[in-house]
Amino acid sequence: MNEPTNNAMIQCENLTKRFGEFTAVDRVTFSIAKQSIFGFLGPNGSGKSTVIRMLCGILEPTEGMGRIAGHDVSRDADAIKGSLGYMSQRFSLYDELTANENLQFYARLYGLRGEAMKTRRDELIALTHLEPYIDRRAGQLSGGWKQRLAMACALVHSPTVLFLDEPTAGIDPVARRELWDLLFELSSGGMTLFVTTHYMDEAERCTHVGYIYMSKLVVCGAPDDLKQLPAVNPPGTKRLDVTCDHVTAGLRVVRKLEGVRASTVFGQSMHFLVEESMPEQSIRDALAGVGIHQVDIRLIGPSLEDVFVALTRQYAGGPA
Amino acid sequence: MTFRMPKFLRGFRAILYKEFIVIFRDRTTLFFMFFPPLLQIIAFGYALDNDVKHMAMAVYDEDRTADSRQLVDAFVNTQTFRVVKRVDSLAELESMVRRGQAYAGLEIPPDFTRKLHAGQKADVQVLIDGSNSTTALQALNTALGVAFQQSVRILLGETNRRELPVEVRPQVLYNPSMRAPNFFVPGVIGTALQIATVFAAAMSIVREREKGTLEQLLVSPLSRWGLMLGKIVPYLCVSMTMAMILFLILRWVFFVPIHGSLVMLVVAAFLYIFALLSLGLLISTKAQSQNEALQMSMTVMLPSIFFSGFIFPRETMPGIFYAFSTILPATYFIELMRAIILRGASFLEFWRHLLILAVMGGVLFSLCALRFKRKIA
Is B7 in the A-facing interface, judged by CB distances under 8 Å? Predict the structure, then answer.
């Protein structure tokens, strides 16, 4: 958020979109440096796709402006189209065309031809391991392979900025991990990536994240910086990870203790936000009272999920 | 591959190749482009035959003389009627017509020959089934004609004149045998082509909008002229093939002679198809869903079946419908078809119609490209 402006690849200034009475995106401002992997999070319908569409120049902002590499996206759309890649949620492939034909189509669309087209196609096939499926119709590919093909198509013109709208929704874990490996590779090659996602583990991998809630950008910054925010770490509190058996039963008694501000189950453990002064022994005692004796307590920092939960609560309930 | 596309056509080639592949792989589109027009030309070509021949006629001859038999023969000789049954009562004659077993009933009274030879008026009754106006009209005209001929023949004999005082010698030009297919089939080609082209083009962009691929196209540097041309050319090729097939059917299935220039026939078909496809594309850019596109195409196409002069002559239409018919491409194409195929008209006689079709196509196509927003919503 605090990058110098001259290094900014993607910028929004009070970007706003209204559909009639409904405000889909409300005065969103942020700036993303070149080579960042920006993770854009938020619940469904919060305005993520609308922001992407405005930044890609296919949806007119009602107010404010977006810039890609310094070009105004609504007035200067043609200037950025050649350097912009976009992979939509629906993958935008032609089902009747084979994987190869889809690639060729998008290559031609961006003016590639002859040898240059073949070379680029081979590079992308190697990058996405599409080789075995190259002559299969896109409509017959499984979700993971469709996503790879869509990725290859979005990269065909070697864009400098790539927008990915929920690229990992509904695909298997292997394909998901491989996609992220690919994203890091692209980023290290100089590309700026803008990725929307619902997965917190994906957000943790990003160099920067933004969280949009009810059409407004709630927070934006590097994950580690966000975890230091006072709203996430109220003064005089600490976060504890409590590992034991029967976590649901445990949670029921511990959350009633004085000094516990927030609690949640996290797999085989419980996470608590408690007052600094609260002794660990009071938790152990409470758990022993319901027959839980094997207890391991650790001091932990907030996760991104904690950050978003804290900020959303603060936002929804007014100033905390 | 050294030729560079001009900027305003950017992306044309990509869309063109893709669209060709999609058309030929998408069996449904191809089926709907070819099947309905073929069905239509065959069905309409055979069904829209208002040449009424050999209508069933029942005869109640109470006279039973050489003269009465000669009268019945005169009816049969017109080829409009054939005698299906001789009956023995007026009630039976009426019931034949009522039950639809005969279109006409001829009753010759017992005193027919006597009155004829006595120089009196001999009445003959003809019952005609009026529930079908085409056949009824034909039966009526033929019956009156027969009576008139018989009367004239007798009168000539009595006056010793050898010829009629006035004789009209009608000569039907261009379609001398008055065959219905000659009149209808060129018109059917007009409406048949319309169904295939407008629907197909109307679906093309709206389908991409529904599938989400349009969004991807909008992000790319594709130009709107490139998009529209790339879309229209493959459909133009398929539709021209269709038009050629329809012309072959016209010539070799319905044996309609083509009197005019084949080149002009192809030019007319090209301009007409271009205008229809542009109209379809225009619908496609406006419609948000395939359903909407379907309804919009129907709204445009249904009136042209009635008002283009395909079935009802435009000249007898009320003023407002006549005015409406002048904005339909089908009106001009159907007139062109009749002019070229039946009348063998020359370019100088119909160039205005060609020009109007060309202008319609040009305007509609430009509207598609100019009004197409490279934005969603």
Answer: no
